[in-house]
């Protein structure tokens, strides 16, 4: 049996993600430059939190698009990798764990930036100042270890492969010849840790958002903060919410398909490939939104690209004159 479409092939997956990483790296580095050297004094309190979020967002992009390049045979939790780590013979079990940790650390970095806002605005005056460091340390440690149950219970590969190929339709010979790795036969070992991690971080994020806006409303009524300060903080929080929410909404598309695929036992390899391409684009969207939504970075982009466009325009006009 041959692949029905080029979109189904490992070659398409590798090519698409390689092209993406070539686009992503310069944009990510420009984002790092803006955060480090163009963050104004008024945003100094969130500078390192934004850098932390950006680094882990960039890390997930690199993990998917360069280091691993997953080729997943979903709805089976099985597949193989085509990235740099495979070229260096890094076991696929380690690669799967790395991707899970990168996703966890990215989610924790979102909670961290919200916690930082709450602490800067209100928490320094409350009991939270004594709890924040243990809270943050717990989150980062949990992100590093939450996937360990799935890793510990990786199945015997020989029998697991037979089960995977039994549940999937007939596949191209190239897939049968590939070093397919089975992450799990029993989904509980994967779903339960991911469910606990995601729900914990969503609950934490929601709590901080409620606390921030609740305290703002209370301070506004008491007039303990000026209207200008409240207005600026609300504007900045809206920018942070957009910066984190839009990429997460983008991730919901592939995640929604993967859940549907599992429930109805649907196997479309081209859709699987496109899901991981969208996941690999997450950080790129996040960086572009960050550069656009925050006014200081937007001004840097205008200056840099306006100068470039003017330079190109002058060059073309000189060429036209010579001709």
UniProtKB/TrEMBL annotation:
- Positions of transmembrane segments: 12-37, 49-74, 94-114, 135-154, 187-215, 236-259, 271-293
Could you tell me what this protein is called?
Serpentine Receptor, class H
The record's section on InterPro entries has: 7TM_GPCR_serpentine_rcpt_Srh, Nematode_rcpt-like_serp_H
Keyword Transmembrane helix among record annotations: yes
> Lineage from the top down?
Eukaryota, Metazoa, Ecdysozoa, Nematoda, Chromadorea
Q: Which domain of life is it from?
A: Eukaryota
- Keywords assigned by UniProt? Membrane, Transmembrane, Transmembrane helix
């Amino acid at each position: 049996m041959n692949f029905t479409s080029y979109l189904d092939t490992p070659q398409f997956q590798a090519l698409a993600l390689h092209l993406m990483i070539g686009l992503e790296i310069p944009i990510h580095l420009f984002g790092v430059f803006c955060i480090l050297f163009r963050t104004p004094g008024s945003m100094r309190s969130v500078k390192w939190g934004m850098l932390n979020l950006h680094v882990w967002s960039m890390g997930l992009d690199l993990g998917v698009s360069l280091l691993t390049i997953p080729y997943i045979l979903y709805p089976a939790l099985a597949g193989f990798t085509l990235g740099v780590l495979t070229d260096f013979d890094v076991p696929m079990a380690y690669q799967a764990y790395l991707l899970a940790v990168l996703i966890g650390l990215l989610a924790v970095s979102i909670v961290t930036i919200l916690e930082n806002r709450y602490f800067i605005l209100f928490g320094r005056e409350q009991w939270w100042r004594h709890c924040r460091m243990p809270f943050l340390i717990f989150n980062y440690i949990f992100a590093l270890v939450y996937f360990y149950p799935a890793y510990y219970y990786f199945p015997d590969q020989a029998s697991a492969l037979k089960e995977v190929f039994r549940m999937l339709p007939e596949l191209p010979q190239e897939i049968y010849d590939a070093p397919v790795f089975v992450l799990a036969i029993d989904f509980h070992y994967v779903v339960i840790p991911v469910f606990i991690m995601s729900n914990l971080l969503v609950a934490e994020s929601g709590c901080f958002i409620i606390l921030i806006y609740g305290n703002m409303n209370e301070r506004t009524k008491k007039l303990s903060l000026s209207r200008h300060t409240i207005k600026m903080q609300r504007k900045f929080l809206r920018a942070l919410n957009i910066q984190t929410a839009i990429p997460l909404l983008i991730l919901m598309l592939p995640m929604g398909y993967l859940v549907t695929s599992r429930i109805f036992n649907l196997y479309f390899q081209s859709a699987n490939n496109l899901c991981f391409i969208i996941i690999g684009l997450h950080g790129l969207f996040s960086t572009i939104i960050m550069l656009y939504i925050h006014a200081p970075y937007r001004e840097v982009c205008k200056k840099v690209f306006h100068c470039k466009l003017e330079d190109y325009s002058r060059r073309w006009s000189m060429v036209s004159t010579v001709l």
